[in-house]
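Example S7 (structure tokens).
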């Protein structure tokens, strides 16, 4: 019996507007905390690897209550740089944060 091909992540570059998705946020958070290198886009990663990254990122955020404002200066600067560049790139591609259906 043939198994269907395993789904893998397309990576930040080919994700919706350069990763303006929950998975893209996860990857950038992994970069911020140094869990993965800033050059890692996670292209080709399977669900198991992404789930492992999620667990590590969740643990890294825990001391800060998931709030950027609580990050120490070095991490806050890295977060602002990484996420700022992602937002700038996404906007240049036509991305705009959408309101919910009822707003």
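Recovered sequence:
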């Amino acid at each position: 019996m043939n198994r269907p091909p395993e789904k893998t992540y397309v990576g930040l570059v080919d994700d919706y507007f350069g990763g303006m998705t929950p998975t893209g946020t996860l990857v950038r958070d992994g970069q911020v905390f140094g869990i993965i290198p800033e050059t890692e886009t996670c292209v080709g990663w399977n669900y198991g690897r992404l789930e492992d990254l999620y667990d590590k990122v969740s643990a890294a955020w825990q001391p800060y209550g998931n709030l950027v404002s609580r990050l120490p200066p070095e991490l806050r600067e890295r977060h602002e740089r990484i996420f700022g560049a992602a937002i700038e790139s996404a906007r240049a591609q036509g991305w705009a944060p959408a309101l919910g259906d009822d707003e």
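Notes on this example. The first helix runs from residue 22 to 32.
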